[in-house]
Amino acid sequence: MMRNSLARTDLAFVLHPQTDPALLEVEGPMILDHGNGVFVTDSSGRTYLEGMSSLWCAALGFNEPRLARAAAEQIARLGTYHTFNRRSNPAVIDLAERLVALSPMPDGKAIFANSGSEAVDTMIKLAWLYHSGRGAPERRKIISRRRAYHGSTVLGATLSGIPSMRGAFAWPDPGVLFAEAPHFYTGGKAGESEEEFADRLVGDIAAMIEAEGAQSIAAMIAEPVMGAGGVILPPASYFPKLAALLRGHGILLLSDEVICGFGRTGEWFGCQAFGFRPDMMSVAKALSSGYQPIGATLLSAEVHEVVRAEASRLGVLGHGFTYAGHPVTSAVALETLKIYEEMDLLARVRALAPAFRAHVGALASHPLVGDARAVGLIGAVELVADRATRRPFAASDGVGTRLIALALEQGLILRNLGDTIAICPPLVIAPAELDLLFTRLRQALDALSDTLA
Ligand code: PLP
């Protein structure tokens, strides 16, 4: 294959995350050059509709000029500063105020980080500090879930329930307990209703707490919609029942909102869409529409009060990142939130959601699709070998990967999570662009059917 010099240099020097190095050597890198609204163009000049918002983050598309201005103006004014030792800056102060006001914990506090992984790490550390402050330092275990994705740091990998993330990377015997993923399509038993399925899963967690001893468990972490694990939407009663169970045992409920936050589900935060009040939440990605690396952990007033007292007793909150509360990332995130409010983001998502759901639902009758699901502007189709028995394809068939390659040929970027195809377009997508996305996806599915026939 002919390669341009950029591609050759990439192959020579860049180690790509979440990439099969052997495949990269055969296929070469896909080099993105510029964006225009919901479209991106690669270095060969081909333009694609970006159906995944980069990695679930570019809510405002790929070239929002107000964000470019916000970054440039802040760099010209104060290009960098930290927030240790009482230091602050106007951008992070305004951002924190707006973010906390928007959240379901408007009397709480925000602490900043550079990524979703760091926001998750922060949340776990603060859960431990909280229990220490309440005289229960032995509460250290964390409940996570199979198929969960909570980031790529050592702690993130250890909390994640995706085998490729854990492999060589999860910390041995770290005190993480794994509950089942609330995926009714694959996990529901014959004759079981969705409500009964939710009861069974919450009952299993109750039994796990009983067996381990509630006094050893600090928190449970959960994504409202499991993203990287396969866009899994929980049954309606799952989280309300789970939240009540955990509260009864003094176990904190941590909502990982890194994908769900900022309108994706049709509510500002996924916990609001799925009916629970978390004790803390992690946010990132759409906080800056992905334009700057920023994350944050939000604490309820009750958690903050204990954390504040404990950190004072210790003399310091012994945690923090050099770039946490960075003026430039904060200025861009602040401008992002202003744009969301000015455009009435929730109204926009709610107006588009029925068409999105109808498009996803229409794919449910495709011969390769076993399950099709959506909430707000996030959805998925799950490919199966046999719709009647729900038998999956063999992993070695690589059906999901093949579908993504065929979609790319149609000018559409999507992402496969095994044989589940995730769809998560920028929230500024226009109705006609949404139609185009699904036309191209259907063409890719039909092309895949032809290769399997
Ligand atoms: N938590 C969730 C739910 C995520 O989906 C991700 C990333 O996709 C992360 C945490 C990690 O975020 P980051 O890649 O910014 O570290």
What does this entry show, briefly?
Belongs to the class-III pyridoxal-phosphate-dependent aminotransferase family. Its cofactor is pyridoxal 5'-phosphate. With 453 residues, this protein is an alpha/beta fold.
Estimated share of beta-strand residues: 15-25%
Helix content: 40-55%
Structural class: alpha/beta
Average pLDDT, all residues: 97
Task: List the total number of helices.
Answer: 17
Arrangement of strands in the largest sheet: 4-10-9-8-7-5-6
What ions, cofactors and ligands are bound? Answer: pyridoxal-5'-phosphate
Task: Give the low-confidence spans.
Answer: none
Biggest sheet record: 7 strands, mixed
What is the CA-based Rg, rounded?
A: 22 Å
In angstroms, what separates the terminal alpha carbons?
29 Å
Number of strands: 15
Q: Based on CA inertia axes, which overall geometry fits?
A: globular
Folded structure, characterized:
Its cofactor is pyridoxal 5'-phosphate. GO terms for molecular function: adenosylmethionine-8-amino-7-oxononanoate transaminase activity; pyridoxal phosphate binding. The chain has about 450 residues and is α/β, with parallel strands linked by helices. Helix content is about 45%, strand content about 15%. The protein has a seven-stranded mixed β-sheet, with helices on both faces. The protein has a four-stranded mixed β-sheet with strand order 1-2-3-13. Strands 11-12-15-14 form a four-stranded antiparallel β-sheet, covered by helices on one side. Strand 2 (about 40) and strand 3 form a beta hairpin. The longest helix has 22 residues, at about 430-450. It is globular and about 65 Å long. The two termini are about 30 Å apart. The structure holds pyridoxal-5'-phosphate (PLP).
